Amino acid sequence: MKKNYLLLFALLLLNFPVFSQETAPDDSWKTIYRTTAEKVNDMVHVELDARFDYSKSQLNGKEWLTLKPHFYPVDSVVLDAKCMDFYKVELVGEKQNTPLEYRYDSLQLTVELGRTYSAKEKYTLYIEYTANPNKIKEAGSAAIVEAKGLYFINPTGEDKDMPTQIWTQGETESNSGWIPIIDKPNQKATTKFMVRVPENYVSLSNGLLTKSKNNRDGSWTDTWEMTQPHAPYLFFIGIGDYAIVKDKPYEGREISYYVEKPYKEFALRTFGETPAMIKFFSEKLGVDYPWDKYSQMTAREYVSGAMENTTATLHGDGGRLNARQLADGNTWEPVVAHELFHQWFGDLVTTESWSNITVNESFADFSEIMWQEHRYGADEGMGYAYASRSRYLENANDTVKPLVRHYYAQREDVFDLVSYNKGGAILNMLRDFLGEDAFYKSLQTYLERNSFGTGNARKLQQAFEDVSGKDLSWFFSQWYFGAGHPHLDISYGYNESAKQAIVYVSQKQTTQLFKFPVWIDVYEGDQINSYFRWIDGQSDTLVFDVSAKPDLINFDARKVLLANKEDHKSFDEFVFQYEHAKNYVDRREAAEFALTQPMDKKNVDLIRATLEDQSYRIRTTVLTGLLELDPPAELFAQIRKIAESDPSKYAKAAALSLLATRKDDQYKALFVQCVEDSSYTVAGAAYQALLDLDEKEGLALLPKLQDDALGALKIAVQRAEFLTKTDADFDTIYAMLSAQSFGEKLRSYKNYMHYLERVDNPANFEKGMQFALELRNQAAAWIPEISTYTDEQILELKKVKEKNKEDGRMVDQMQAQIEYLDGLIEKEGL
């Protein structure tokens, strides 16, 4: 499962709010120990004849479910089955079926088997039923926003702008919304799905398409067979009017992409690195890609980012990229790597429980780093790892959550920055500590020992220890079973008489005390001495013999440590670090330091250097950081050059946004020119800049831009549209936003918050604010920046309303809104 990180990136520019409810939070979950599901019966094989009623959004199914007792004799079986109607429940016999007694409570089907079965005996149930996914009321989460299991998109074709699709989403335990199963991650079974499909559509499911039968009634029945066992949350069916684009096979196995027909020409540009990824991951892991094929499908109105269904990954909106989106580069490529890596970590070896989701998601997160550094070089790999690590470190709410989490309110809660970003970061640390060979040999051992079975953190630890010969209890106890991360205060000294350089390291976190290894580079001119040391105390003092005071002591020289670091280097030391240490994070740290310093000549020189850095990430970071400052006029010639000709669309966009702060007519022609850029990101930044500089001219361009606006340009176009709206349009705007998907609401958020500045009716204003606050709460766990933005905007709204009142504009209405905002400010502690 992959949260939509492109959406999250966009949200750094948007943002959302919502304050806590009056009712006390339910903390009863803190006493409920979540462990691996007990296995009474084991699923062996699942066979389904699935027919879909588009008019009713129902699945009419005939299922043959083969099971066996796990160990102890059984005379009944409990199946997960949500909101279904049952017509037959029978025991399959050699000559005829025998009806069985059963009980059903709308969530579970309990079947009496008629006799006792031993662990050596298999039995098969035959079940006829109708699945009613739209009756399922189970809530989703921030990561997976719905839990119906089966989704009909525009099933009757009423929306002419939306394709008709059917797709399933099983994680965590939602596939029991369309098929009766034991819906637990520690179950595994082979599958055979016979899917009836309208003749103008195609289907995709797990395994191989072994048969396609013409029913001569305007439909086909596709038979998909999965001969290797896999977990029930990975069962999948997808149906729609897709083009099937086949890539070069991997060792004779089909690689294909199911995309909407208008996106056929872009499929290879979006997913085309897949064969190379499969080869790379197979070689690094020492375990060949384990399945018979690999297909990827895109879906409309998907409830998450992407999902690693066995052999058949499903992608949400981010997987549909056109030429203008691809002009920014393939932003979806890390997701392609993430879901593919799950075919080993998650599908081949599956977490035994949701408490151990780290053995699925942390590895998939780490695979993104692996692929970036392999495909694009060490600089990009380190930059990607830094960005991922930073997202976790910026979210203080996650410091109380261990990776292996036996206490949680709902299953979906474990899909967060801890399981993803923190987990990927600590695997990167472990790789650095053990070395490449031992690390990947350990992964191979773990996979081979647990293939087609389940895994957990203890099994993972055992594999690492057996291969490396090292006791890694210190690592797993603090990083997997403990919470938080180090908060380090690092300072430096020099003893002239003893010729000793000194590093003082203090741990300031209030959680556990950490023990960790660290590499320290000591620079004396061009000479670099590297030292390996352990940190394990509240305060540690490290001493190094030197010939003179070092030009730089680079703590955590390999830049893999997951920690907040307050590093007390001088300005000159950061300049030296930028010029000599050279790796991406060394340069990034120096660039970020420069953004905290006064704009004197020395600092401006450093900033000039960072704006020419080889990494677009650093150039963009500095440009974005300068938006919050008052950069000297002498920098703007260089900034303009970036806006005109930088090879990175992101750097160009950031430079345009920075030029916009000057409110200078000399840039208008450039803004107008860049509105036509092939990149939505650049065009969006340019259009925002033009609206800031000359709103009238910007609005004149609106009709021309509305027909082809996505991403940043869509946000800018929406801003222009909102500029034409007043309080009289509130009901229309509220209805539009309410009907949007979660992702669309997030993309609209910043413009919507500015629109509230023009809402006069107090009842509308409060209703609109509540909508925004609720959306913020949904997003805050993954996007901590949304809370900061919302706090700032609440205060800004109060200023706007106070100014309106001072100007004598609707005084009573403004006063009511001010009083509401005062109450909100007090509640939020702003």
From TrEMBL:
> Is Metal-binding among the key words of this record?
yes
Q: Which reaction does it catalyse?
A: Release of an N-terminal amino acid, Xaa-|-Yaa- from a peptide, amide or arylamide. Xaa is preferably Ala, but may be most amino acids including Pro (slow action). When a terminal hydrophobic residue is followed by a prolyl residue, the two may be released as an intact Xaa-Pro dipeptide
Q: Give the record's GO CC terms.
A: cytoplasm; extracellular space; membrane
Residue intervals of the Peptidase M1 membrane alanine aminopeptidase domain: 272-479
Q: Output the SUPFAM superfamilies linked to this UniProt entry.
A: ARM repeat (SSF48371), Leukotriene A4 hydrolase N-terminal domain (SSF63737), Metalloproteases ('zincins'), catalytic domain (SSF55486)
Sorted UniProt keywords:
Aminopeptidase, Hydrolase, Metal-binding, Metalloprotease, Protease, Signal, Zinc
Give an example GO molecular function: alanyl aminopeptidase activity
Q: Do the record's keywords include Disulfide bond?
A: no
Q: Tell me which stretches of the chain form a coiled coil.
A: none
Q: What is this protein called?
A: Aminopeptidase N
Give the species this sequence originates from. Mangrovibacterium diazotrophicum
